[in-house]
Amino acid sequence: MTDRPPSFRRMPLLRIIVVAVVLGLGALIVWGFIEGRGEAAREAERERPVTPPRRVSMVNGAPVITLNVESQKRSRIETTVPAPAPYQEQVRAYATVLEVARLIDLNSSYANANAQRLAAHAKLAASSTAFERAQKLYQDQQNVSLAQLQAAEAAFRTDQAALTAAESQVRTLATTAQQEWGPVLGKSLIDGSSMITRLLERQDFLLQVTLPPGVILAAPPATAAIQTGQHSRIAIIFVSPATRTDPKIQGVSFFYLAPANSGVLPGMNVLSFLSSGRPISGVTLPAEAIIWWQGRAWVYHRTGSETFTRAEIATDLPAPGGGYVVKDFAPNTEIVTRGAQLLLSEEFRAQIQIGEDEK
Question: What is the pLDDT of residue 97?
Fold first, then answer.
């Protein structure tokens, strides 16, 4: 058997080396591809924004914020149990600032009529004296003629009639004032007291406060309040029952006085609050516990050791030291007095996060 040349014997070895090199290169390519994809995934993961854990959930339609004890300390969340505060129930009514032009006209007419009455009275006094003197002279010694006596009597009778007419005009205007504006304002106009003066000089404004239909108070409170701004209340002073009702409301009406610095002007309509006289148990919520959102007042109260929820409160009765007196708070409810704004921000942030997740 003839021996193969050496080059032919080396061919299988070369093939093995070539195959091994090809397989090695393929393995390197595959590894590089897989490693590249892994690195890209890791880079994308690193660049992804870190989403904070959700601390807000909905329970029975109300947002509940969860903060562990450590987070509460770090955020300086403080709570307190509000002090009990018995108070009288407030009735919401509708107040209209009245234009008093008619009252001004009546005051002017009454002043003129009264001046005419005084002038007629003085003129009658003079003519009465002259008539009496003419009578005595005529009866005693005929020192005056009959014509002179008759002229003196005619002047006296004329002045008498003028005084009667002037007095009738004064009485008519006084009656009109009392019928249109009530006995208190009518008497003030007749007497020229400070009440009517302050109204005419716009130091005070006259309000007609009308209760809702069907609401009746045992007695109108001596003082009430009107709301002239979002959070501003001004005390008003009772004058008398009104002589007419508001045709749009058809409820019992009263006249009240508001100071000029209250910010009201004739024609304005404002909310008013009157005490009904019925005592109600409530609590005082301090001003620092109250947050304002969407034009309404809210507080956060604790529902568990790590949970808080937001509740709307009524602002019908401001507390003397600030804040509000409210009812319908369970005993020993802890109110957030520090950090309420932070909880509101946390609640809004959760809403934004949910909205972005849904996109």
Answer: 95
Same domain, 183 and 212: no
Query: Among 128-132, 227-231, 278-282, whose mean pLDDT is lowest?
Result: 227-231
What residue numbers bound the domain in which 192 lies? 101-198
The CA–CA distances, whole Å, from 75 to 102, 307, 347 equal 61, 14, 15
Residues 193 and 232 in one domain: no
Task: Indicate if 141 and 229 belong to the same structural domain.
Answer: no
Of 159-168, 228-237, 316-325, 349-358, give the range with the top mean pLDDT: 159-168
Domain end among 198, 216, 235: 198
pTM of the model: 0.64
CA atoms within 13 A on the CB side of 188: 16
Total tally of structural domains belonging to the chain: 4
Query: CA-to-CA distance for 128 and 241, rounded, in angstroms?
Result: 45
